[in-house]
Amino acid sequence: MTTATTIEATHDDHHHGPEKGLMRWVKTTNHKDIGSLYMWFAFTMLLVGGAFAMGIRAELLQPGLQLMEPQFFNQLTTMHGLIMVFGAIMPAFVGLGNWLIPMMVGAPDMALPRMNNWSFWILPFAGGILLSTFFMEGGAPAFGWTFYAPLSTTFAPDSTDFFIFAVHLLGFSSIMGAINIIATVLNMRAPEMKLMDMPLFVWTWLITSFLLIGAMPVLAGAVTMMLTDRNFGTAFFDATGGGDPVLFQHIFWFFGHPEVYIMILPAFGVVSHIIPTFARKPLFGYSSMVYATASIAFLSYIVWAHHMFLTGMPVAGELYFMYATMLIAVPTGVKVFNWISTMWRGSMTFEAPMLWAVSFVFLFTIGGFSGLMLGIAPADIQYHDTYFVVAHFHYVLVTGALWSIIAATFYWLPKWTGKMYNEKLAKIHFWWAVISVNVLFFPQHFLGLAGMPRRIPDYSLQFADFNFISSIGGFAFGASFILLTYIVIDCIRNGKPASSRPWEGAKGLEWTLEPKAQYHSFNTPPSRKLIKAESQHS
Amino acid sequence: MKKLVIAFGLLFSFNVFAEYGLNMTEGVTSLSRDIYGLHMMVFWVSVVIAIVVFGAMLYSLYMHRQSKGAVAANFHESTKAELIWTIVPMIILVGMAVPASKVLIDLEDTSKAQMTVKITGHQWKWQYDYPEEGISFISNLSQDSKDAVNGTDADRENANHYLLDVDNRLVLPVDTSVRFLITSNDVIHNWWVPDFGVKQDANPGFINDAWAEIEEIGTYRGQCAELCGKDHGFMPIVVDVVSKEDYKKWVAKKQSEAAAAAVSATKTWGKNELMTKGKGVYNTNCAACHKADGSGMPPVFPAIKGSVIANGSAAAHLSIVLNGKGAMPQFKMLGDSDLAAVITYERNAFGNTGSVVQPSDIKSAR
Ligand code: HEM
Ligand SMILES: [Cu+2]
Ligand SMILES: [Cu+2]
Predict the structure, then answer these.
(1) pTM here?
(2) How far does the centroid of ligand 2 lie from the alpha carbon of residue A304, in Å?
(3) Is A16's pLDDT higher than 50?
(4) Domain co-membership, B217 together with B282
(5) Which stretches of chain B score pLDDT less than 70?
C-alpha cells in the first residue's frame, strides 16, 4: 500500500506542480496548499471572532448599556464562541496537521487528497452561513455556544435552522479531516518508521482524530434532535411532550468535553517539538507523553457531566464525575513535568517560538489549576457560570491552544516560506501579547469569585473596576494581532532566506527537506537511519 | 508574567480579599462556609504546587540558558521520576476528594427542612410561592435600575444597588432550615444566592431542590446564573432574612393582602381604575418584550399598538396571555384583577380600541 501510493505520487510529480492563478487554490489537492488555505481561513476567522470580542469588551467597559441591546450582545457572545472554536482553533490545527504530518512521517502528501480539498472547501460555506444569520429576521443565534434547549429550540429565532445546517457542515469537514489524518499516519508513514518513532505532533493528532470521529457525530445528533424538535413536532428536549431539557446537556457535553481536548492535544504536540529544540536536549519521557495523551483522550469521554453539576444530578453521579475529573489532572500534570524536565539542564535560547512555548507551559498550567478547582463539585456551585469559568477556559484555550498555534507558526514559518521572520518584531509582539492577555483574563478570576455571572451585558457597580481593566487588556491584546499580521506578511514578502534547518537544535524529518519545503514532501521514503537520526527522543 | 506575579502577590494578602471583593464569599450558611473552606483548600494546594513547579521552571529558565554558558545534558528518561510525579499527585487528589465528598453528600440532603419555598423562573423574573402559607408573588428588577440601564453614570450611582434590587423581595426567617423547590416556566434559569451557597438550575418541567439554614439576619443578593435569553442579566434575586417574629408578621400581612385581592377580584371595576392599575402591571411584566409604548420589537416580539388581537375579540387576547404561545410566556400566575387590568390596558392604550375586561372574565377563562 505505502509503496504503491508513493510511486503514484512520484509519477504525479512529473506533470503537475502548482497550477497557475486562482484555480490553483480551488482545485488543489496538495497538502501544503490546503494547509495554507486552512491557516489563512483560521486566521481570518480569528480576526472576525476577535472583532466580536472587541464589541463584547467595549460594552462591558463600563456599567450601563452604551453600545448595543442585550439581545445583540448575546448574539455577539454566541457567535464569538462558535467562530473561535469551529472557525479559528479547529481549522488552524487541521491546517498545521496538513502542512506538517506528511513531512513528519516521510510521506509525499496526505492519503486522501481529493477529500482533503473537500474538507477545506466546505468550511468557508459553513462559516458564511453561520455569519449570514446576523442579517436574518430575528438576528443571529443568541443562546451561547453551548446552545442549551429549550432556549435554542422553542425560544430561538428562525435563523437557528441555518446554524444547525452550518454545524452539520462543520462536522462533516472535521470528520473528513480526521479520517484523512488517520489514513495518512497509518498508511503513508515511511515503512521504516515505527509508531513509537513518530514525533509527538503526529501522535497527538492521531489521537485527536479518534476523538473527532467519536465526538462530532454526537454533535450532529444533538443538532438533528434540535432540528426535529423545532420543525417536526418531536419533543426530545421538551418536558411537555415527555422529553427532558437536561438530556440535551448530556448529549452536548458528551461531545463538548472531548471537544475541548480536541483543541488542546495537538497543542501539547506542538510544544513537545519546540521545547526540545530550544533546550537542545531530547524530549524527556517520550513514551510517557504518548501514554499520557492517550489516557487524557480516554478520560475525556467519561467526565462530561462536570459541566452539569447544578442540573440536579443524583449525588452518586456528582461524586463519580468529580472523581473522574480530578483524575484528568494526573496525566496533564505528567505532561507539564516532562516539559520542565526537558528544559532542565538544557542549553536554552529564547527565540520567538520558545517564548510562546514557555509561556504556554506557565499559562496553560494556571488554567489547569482553575480546572482542578472547578472539578471539586461543591466548590463548582459557586464558580459555575461565572467569570471564573470564563477565565479558566480562556487560559486553556487562548494561552493554551491559540498560543501553541502562534508558536507553531513562528517555528515552522521558515519551512513554509523558505524565509525568516523578523525576530526583533516577533519578540516585541510576544511581550505585548503576553502582558495584555493576562491583563485581560486574570482579573476575570476575581470577578467570578466576587459573583459576576457570565453572559451578561451589564453588571452592578461593584464589578466596574475589574471589568474596566479587563477591557483595556482586551483592546491591547486585540491590537497585538495587527502586528502579528504584519510580521507574517513581512516574512513572506521580504524575509531573509532561511537555511533548511534554521534552528540549530531542531530535529525532525521536515528539517531535512529544502529550506522552503518542496511541493511534494518525500518522494522516496526516508531510511531507518535518517528516521533515527531525526528522532526527537534519542 | 510580571502581571501574574503581582496578581498572585495580591492574592496572598487577605485584607485585599475583603476590601475589593477578590475572593469567594464565606456566606452565612454552614454549606457556604464548607464550600468556602474547600475553595481555599484547593486554592492553597494549587499555590503550593505552583510554587514548586513554577519555581523549578523559573530556576531552569534562568540557570540553564546558553547565554550563561549552560551545556545541554542528554538525559531523557527516568521511570522513577515518572512514577513519583504520577503517584504524588494521586495522593494529593485523594486528600482533596475526601472532604469534597463529605460536603457534597451533606449538600444534597434536604430531608431536615422546616419550611418550603417554591421558586419558579420566568423570562425574566422570579416567582416565589410559599405553599404552606398560601403566599405567592412575582419579583422583578426594580424600576430605578431599569431606568438607569440606559441612563447616566449618576443614575446608576443613585439607583439602589444597581441591577441587584427587586420590587418584591423573598422573605425568610433566620435559623430555619428552608427547602427550595426550583423550577421554570419557560427556559432554563438558575437561582443563585452566593451567601447561601445555593445555586441550582431551574429546569422547565422538572423540580430541583436545595436547602439553606441562614444564620444571620440581613439582606442577601444574587442573580440568575444560566443564560435565559435577552434579559438574563436583569433578573436579580434579593432575600430579606428576618427574625422569626418579623417573619410571622410578614406572613400575616401577605395573607391579608391576598384576601383583599380575592375580594377585589369579585367586584366590577371602572375602566379608569383598570387602566391605571393595568399600566403598572404592563410596565413590570410586559414592557420587556412589547416595550412601554406598545411598539414591541418585531419580528420576534410583536407590537401591541394596532395589534389585531388587542383590537379584536377579548377571548383570543385572554387566551394568549393566560396560556402563552411560542416565545410569549404564560401569565397564569398573575391575579385575576391584575390580568383584567393589564388586558384592558393593552386594549385601550396606544390608540387601541378594544373592549374592557373584568376580573370575573379572567376567572371564567382560566
Ligand atoms: C486539568 C484539566 C481540566 C479540568 C479539571 C477542567 C475542568 C473543567 C470544569 C469542571 C468545567 C466546568 C465549569 C463550570 O461550567 O462550572 C470546565 C469548563 C470548561 N473547560 Fe475545562 N478543565 C480542564 C482543562 C481544560 C482544557 C484543556 C480545555 C480546553 C482546551 C478546557 C476548556 C473548557 C471550556 C471551554 C469550559 C467552559 C465550557 C462552557 O461552559 O462554555 N478545560 N473545565
Ligand atoms: Cu469539560
Ligand atoms: Cu438567566
Answers:
(1) 0.89
(2) 6
(3) yes
(4) no
(5) 1-20
**What's the average model confidence in pLDDT over A446-469?**
95
The count of domains in chain A is 1
Domain around A315: 23-533
CATH number of the domain that B271 lies in?
A: 1.10.760.10
Q: Is residue B89 part of a domain?
A: yes
Strands of the sheet containing B218-224, edge to edge, are: B170-173, B237-242, B218-224, B189-193, B198-202
A145 CA closest ligand 1 atom index? 41
- B120 vs B138: CA distance, rounded Å: 9
Same-domain status, B244 and B321: no
ipTM value, please give it: 0.90
Residue A17 is predicted with a pLDDT of: 67
Domain assignment of residue B271, yes or no? yes
Does residue A10 lie within any of the structural domains?
Answer: no
User: In Å, how far from its chain's centre is CA B196?
Assistant: 12
Residues B208 and B142 placed together within one structural domain of the fold: yes
Which pLDDT tens digit goes with each residue over B92-143? Answer: 999 999 999 999 988 877 777 899 999 999 999 999 999 999 899 999 999 8
Does B251 contact A at CB distance below 8 Å? no
Out of A254, A310, A370, A392, mutate this one to test ligand 1's pocket (max ligand atoms within 8 Å of CB): namely A392
* Domain of B243, in residue numbers: 115-248
Helices assigned H by DSSP within A235-386: 245-262, 265-279, 286-300, 315-343, 352-375, 377-383
Among A372, A374, A405, A441, name the best residue to mutate to test ligand 1's pocket (greatest count of ligand atoms within 8 A of Cβ). Answer: A374
Q: Can you say how many angstroms the Cα of residue A45 is from the centroid of all Cα atoms in its chain?
A: 12
Q: Look up residue A211 and give its three cell numbers.
A: 476523538
| A454 within domain boundaries | yes
pLDDT (average), residues A413-421: 95
Confidence grade of residue A538 (pLDDT, cut at 50, 70, 90): low
